[in-house]
Amino acid sequence: MRTLGVEISGSEALLCLLTKEDDVFDIRDIRQRRFTLGNQGADLEEMRKFQFDFAKLIQDYGVDSVAIRQRPHKGKFAGSAAGFKMEAAIQLISDVDVQLLAGNEVKEQLKRNPIPVDFEDTGLKKFQEQAFTNAYVYILRKTYAKDE
Known about the structure:
4 helices, alpha/beta, 6 strands, 24% strand
């Protein structure tokens, strides 16, 4: 199972590709660790380019699923308009399973199944930590959903 963890922050989509085969997790290198949406998504061509480039990355690496953490619509930590546009563009990519993870679900899953390695030992950049967590939690959700 190849899962692309995505953390949307402002007008950037931060990425981490995590695989699980035979109960072994593996962090894969990808050519692009972040996508930036220019002009806050106000330009149609910019949105199409973002979606095309993202879909191409998914296709090239054989990604099965994409895990994105939901952001609140209101309040102090509310997502930006550009972030919601990027989220929608990713959800509309065909032939890939895109799932939104609720913040409380992420916390509960990490409480039950903590990440078995310190993040510093993964070799990822600090800005990829949330994307890595999203992919890890989604893989655990898929793994344990089969058992129930």
